[in-house]
Amino acid sequence: MIDNCSFEMVDEFKYLGTTIADHNSIQEEIKSRLKSRNSCNHSVQDLLSFSLLSKDIKIEIYGSIILPVVLYGCETWSLTLREERKLRVFENSVLRRLFGPKRDEVTGEGKKLYNKELNDLYFSPNIIRVIKSSRMRLAGHVAFVGERRGVYRVLVAKPERKISLGRPRHRWECNIKMDLQEVRWGSWTGLILFRRGTVGATCKCGN
Known about the structure:
The protein has 207 residues and is mainly alpha-helical. The chain has a domain of 61 residues. It contains 9 helices and 4 strands, in the order ββααααββααααα. The strands form 2 sheets. It has a two-stranded antiparallel sheet. The chain has a two-stranded antiparallel ribbon with strand order 3-4. β3 and β4 form a beta hairpin. α1 packs across α3, α3 runs antiparallel to α4 and α6 packs across α8. The C terminus is likely disordered.
């Protein structure tokens, strides 16, 4: 019960096009998002293969067409390190295709670019940093509306049912706390400034 309104207990529900399950796993959603990029890739295949287009333009195509499809609803994702690695593998595979092989100065043969070389060539925030920024933006919005709103009380509420034995599930709130540590922001109150866009330019996420 929230503000005299009753909410049905369900196993899963859709939010912003994302399926949120009671077991707090986002694996199936990520699989679905990565599959959806295949059709998106097909629609821009000719552009990405067009030799007269510069790499900068191809990166813009990736960032404005492909990436939003993969990250739709990512502000609600609760990611583990394994899922973050899976997303980084996806992005690195796209970037290798955009930048092409590295030519050996001696033999002239093409060599696969290493991840560090890709990071040096790709100046935009990587896919994990984009997710963290989106996640903190949503958290900042919730913090901004204040505790009088139901959405805030739902987020900070503690479940009354008995917690099962074993390692607790990785929660969205846990991701937010780690994200705040990375940008050296101490509390939820500070997210109000992030909501207003004053700390976005100084984000120092390590990924």
